[in-house]
Every structure is written in structure tokens, then in C-alpha cells.
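Re: that chain you flagged

S.,

Sorry for the slow reply, it's been a week of failed gels. I finally had a moment to sit down with the sequence you sent. For the record, here it is as I used it:
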Amino acid sequence: MMKWFDCCAGFGIPVKSPARVIATAQELVEELEFCGVGEALVYHTSMVEEGAQVGNGRVVEETKEEARLHPTWAILPPQTGELGTVEQFLGEMRRNGVKALRAYPQEHRYLLNRVTFGPLLEEIVARWIPLMVGPDWEGVASLLAEFPELTLVVTRHGSWGDDRYFRPLVERYPNFHLDTSRYQLDHGIADFVRKYGPDRLLYGSGSPELQMGASLLALAQADIDEGAKEAIAGGNLRRLLGEVRL
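Prediction finished late last night. Pasting the C-alpha cells below so you have them in one place:
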């Protein structure tokens, strides 16, 4: 039986509502159950819209009774002191069981590079902590050029021609990964797996902005073997989280 583990799901009431709002952790769990998904790596909308200081606390507090939901945190430049020192931040991650991070450079108004995040990113690389970012391909390419061993996951990339952006990065950087939330190109998953294998893809729904079942169906019906499907559905994400050293 497929053990699905969603790498990109959120909850909370956003300022600008999507087609459907998943307001609470419990509502997200109900959606997971409806779609047959076992676990999810999650964020709270307030991490983006109100700030990392607010959202990081809320996502931990509101998922602590939900064993199927695994919180992620947003990062901010260490120079501003908003999330403490690098050592304090990592210590809080350890205490709260946070094993993956997210970056919102446009929304939070910073440059995701060595000048801004050097000491933190060096620790992220050394500790094998996955960092999730959106599809700003120039920014992603520049970041990987500075930190080629970084475990980086690009989420919600588009299905229309984004392979031309990310395939060169897949070939160059061994720890670069992609979620499948919007990768619904005809035979896209199958062609990617034939060329690169299944280990660089992570099932992600992009919920609630996207319907949870859409990318699940695309993967379930992809023309690849069951072992590859199981890896993408959850095995790869479990492996990445198992490598984290806090």
C-alpha cells in the first residue's frame, strides 16, 4: 500500500483566500484522510503573511496534537536578530522537532544568498536540513552555485516549460529536488524518471492553493514502476528527513 507523505501543504486563514480554505490543522488532517495521504510537512499561512516570528510559533503550537503533521519553519536574515542567533535558531528547531525550513525571499524582502545567510546556510548544509523555496529560477541557480551541496527543494514550479530551467540543475547539483504539486505535464513524471530516476522528486500537493488530489492522481497514474511511485510518494521525503542532524 502506498505510503503518501505530502511535502508541501499548509493551513490557516490567509488574507486573500484561495478557492478553498483549510483553516486548522484538524481540517488539514481530514483532507489528508479523504485523499488517503498519511503525513504532511506543513506550514502556516501566517508564516508568510504575518511574519516568521508569528507563523513559526503557530505551526508548532497548532500541530503538536497531530502526529501526522510535521512543522516547518521560515527563515529570516540572522543580521536582524528577529529569530535569534544561528545557534539559538538551530536549538529551537531541535527542541520543537522542526526538520525542514522554508524561504520566502520576495514576500519577506531579503536576498537568499551567502552575503545574507552565509553562517545559517553553512549549518543547513552541514546538518542536511532541507530548504524549500519557490520557483525563482535565477535565484535558485545562484543559491546552488554558492552552496552546491545544499539540500534544496523547489515547490510549486509550473508545468509549462519549467523542465528547461530545472533539468540542468538536476544534472549539476546532487541534492537538488522538486515537488510534484504542479508538475502535471503529459508524461512529464515518467520522462523525468526514465532520465534521472525517481529520487529527486517529492510528492507535494500545494494544498490548499491547489487541490490535494490532483498531483496525487498524476503520480498514481504515471507510467513508472511501483517502486518509483513509492519513492516519490513518500520514501524520498522520509529519507531526507532521516538524514537531518540537529
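What I noticed first: The longest helix spans residues 226-242.

Talk soon,
D.
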